[in-house]
Design a protein that fits this description.
6-stranded parallel β-sheet; 3-stranded mixed β-sheet
Length: 338
């Protein structure tokens, strides 16, 4: 049905994902868009591909917030708990034909391309493709162009916050695409995101995620080096974390990843192999614009060594193991005095 806005309707529209229909001017509202067909704008039924470490938690939030959900994962057993909670298990082609939006949360750009190829032929005009995978900005632009030809909206929307952010519904989501498509999917993103931004046109969400990964890479190396120094100085490592974590050095990487390092908890909140993939994308994009990032290149080498040592499926905090071996120390054991 159709409606026109009066006072307060703009907020209603945004809360329902109906777009920025009206723009405030002075004390009243000026008409900013035309009438909207509400039913065609609502995202009610979501098809979700990829229910891994973070995807499963994100899906649980969608179910709790009343969205109808169809799910698919290559390892079907990873969807069973979601099905018990009300989701439907469907193939990618089936969900593409049935759902208002398809969300991807897979591992690599090649996985994004494969899943996109499976669903795009079956998606309805007016539906939306949302890619939460950290992937190539160039691929995001290509997908956007192909979707446009078919009357489908596309948003690249990588996330950050790890397993903790996903479980707590506090993810940061960096989006690239058109404002109207962003507005339509925002209510769904609010189910598991606390900081949701449209960074610009298609591909800009992925570029923003590269910025995030560059900052994390350099920060986590600093955390490891600081802990190694504290160990060699004979300091209480837990006390050090508690003390500097509340000062200028405090960060998620220090306070959370540093704590996991000291507990020898190397379970993945984010896989090493996926982080290496992200760094490769960032370095490739940097090379494209003739930009040198020596810190990122160095950190990638440490993680590449960790993969060679069998750590591909560990969490990113396991970079500690590489630096421990380099220095012939083990932070879990008492310091041996020379």
């Amino acid at each position: 049905f159709f409606f026109q806005a009066e006072d307060g309707i703009r907020d209603f529209c945004l809360s329902r994902g109906l777009g920025d229909v009206y723009k405030r001017q002075g004390t009243g509202f000026r008409k900013f868009g035309s009438k909207i067909k509400m039913q065609s704008s609502l995202i009610k039924h979501i098809g979700w591909i990829g229910t891994g470490v973070m995807g499963k938690s994100m899906c649980e939030h969608l179910l709790r917030n009343g969205f109808q959900l169809s799910v698919y994962n290559r390892t079907r057993t990873k969807t069973e708990e979601l099905v018990q909670k009300g989701a439907l298990y469907r193939s990618p082609k089936e969900m593409a034909a049935a759902c208002d939006a398809i969300f991807l949360m897979v591992g690599y750009p090649r996985d994004v391309e494969a899943m996109f190829g499976e669903v795009v032929e079956h998606m309805r005009p007016g539906s939306v493709l949302v890619d939460h995978t950290t992937s190539s900005p160039t691929l995001a632009q290509r997908i956007f162009t192909e979707c446009k030809k078919r009357g489908i909206d596309s948003i690249d929307a990588p996330v950050t916050g790890g397993d903790i952010g996903a479980k707590n519904g506090k993810l940061t989501i960096m989006c690239g695409g058109e404002q109207t498509a962003f507005d339509r999917i925002t209510p769904a993103l609010q189910s598991y995101g606390a900081n949701i931004k449209l960074m610009g046109k298609e591909g800009q969400g992925q570029h923003a995620k590269m910025v995030n990964q560059i900052a994390i890479a350099n920060t986590i190396l600093g955390v490891v080096e600081s802990l190694l120094y504290a160990y060699k100085a004979g300091l209480d490592l837990n006390l050090v974390l508690e003390t500097i974590g509340s000062g200028a050095a405090g960060s998620f990487q220090l306070n959370v990843s540093g704590g996991r390092m000291l507990r020898r908890d190397f379970d993945p909140g984010f896989y090493v192999e996926h982080f290496v993939k992200d760094m490769e994308i960032a370095l490739e994009e940097a090379s494209r614009v003739n930009l040198s990032l020596p810190g990122l290149a160095l950190v990638k080498q440490f993680y590449q060594a960790l993969m060679a040592q069998g750590g591909a499926r560990l969490g990113t905090q396991a970079i500690l193991l590489v630096l421990e071996r380099m220095n012939n120390v083990d932070l879990s054991k008492p310091l041996q005095k020379d």
